[in-house]
């Protein structure tokens, strides 16, 4: 204990040596590091000529009048002080161990008490975070520095933290709203409660991410195929190969009801926008409409000659569309149960269907490698889109209805201009079948999932990949499904029963995201505010 206490005192004394510097020189130093791509920051700073260059650059950068140099520029020893401080820190316990651990709690709290009002130290801690992007020898102290800044509630909103490397620490409750974290790497980091609303996350890497506050939704006794959340965010519906549908209370994680009505695997579920009706479809060739409130079957729809694979409500809830292995699409009156129309044109099973936001157009994706657009009112095919070399597994309209996304077994995603029916972009990034697609509520981001345990986030405007989630070499998933809704949803299933707690469901509620997990026989809810993290793997 005494040894640890001395380590803590040593660190506070080291940081106290920075009390006379002008903290703005830290930005100048990092700018030079970044411009010259310095990988050994300490060696660079120990060279006298480099110290002079920094001082001269600082004077020019800050535009300091000649007569004010001696008064303003305390930096005549500041670069040396910063250099000496970094020399001490690189060999300190602060750069060797995870200071967010419980055993360092007393040291951490006493340190915070001493430095929490010192702006110069705040800036130096941020400087240490920044140099992790260049010099790997400072990764642990940079990670500990970020942990301290978060605990002291230093305002980090809108900061640029590109390419930083954060490892072995806790970022619980971090507020990174509007931050630029592009290119950054996070390994063995606790991100519970992290807020990344509006943050830039292009090409981020997440490995061994820890997320707490889990709900285990246990009930299904076979594979979970599909999940959907009610529009008010209170109820989760799940369908399974055990022939049942389960309703879950999202707030408590408790099962609200088990719905039995199908005689074979329940392939997909969808909740109407008003939250009153649940549709389910099954390999038994039927579709059931359920009352969310009474948990009873309202209508049982029969009209397909093979398994029903996909269902989707129109925006006003008056029509339900169903796609089947019999190559057809049916439109149903949700009040009477009468079949309004039957669309034929595909030469393979209809894997996915989606209504446009105005309800006038239905998109369908098929195993025949095509996408068809149908006029809901005239019941006629509007156009056929050809661009894939494999079965089309997913289709999704953007919220404004101008773009249609399609995902295929050829590993590609196509973006189509709905008005001109021309292909706008072809997104290449998956190394397996694209099984699922969904746009974020604001339409700026497209989420895609594939059978190789990864989920990708794309910029809808540029077609650039923002971030890849998962994708580890030790594949543990058999399927990724993203439900079509106003929010982003995702589902992952296991192959390996020895692994559990895989984060799989994202729901956007007023820019706050909830993660949920489902795997074989088990669903897990992860409660936090975070955008972009979908995977957590823990071994039993």
Q: Can you characterise this structure?
A:
With 540 residues, this protein is of the alpha+beta class. It contains nine helices and 35 strands. A hairpin with a 2-residue loop joins strand 33 (512-519) and strand 34. Among the domains are: 2-154, no CATH class; 225-344, Methylamine Dehydrogenase, Chain H. It has a four-stranded antiparallel beta sheet with strand order 4-34-33-32, with no helix packed on it.
Explain the layout of strands and helices.
Blueprint: H1 2-16, H2 24-35, H3 41-46, H4 48-62, H5 69-72, H6 78-90, H7 105-115, H8 119-131, H9 139-151, E1 165-170, E2 185-190, E3 205-207, E4 214-218, E5 224-229, E6 235-240, E7 244-249, E8 255-260, E9 266-271, E10 277-282, E11 286-291, E12 297-302, E13 308-313, E14 319-324, E15 328-333, E16 339-344, E17 350-355, E18 361-366, E19 370-375, E20 381-386, E21 392-397, E22 403-408, E23 412-417, E24 423-428, E25 434-439, E26 445-450, E27 454-459, E28 465-470, E29 477-481, E30 491-494, E31 499-500, E32 505-509, E33 512-519, E34 522-526, E35 538-539
Parallel strand pairs: 1-2, 2-3
Antiparallel strand pairs: 4-34, 5-6, 6-7, 7-8, 9-10, 10-11, 11-12, 13-14, 14-15, 15-16, 17-18, 18-19, 19-20, 21-22, 22-23, 23-24, 25-26, 26-27, 27-28, 29-30, 31-35, 32-33, 33-34
Helix pairs in contact: 1-7, 2-4, 2-8, 8-9
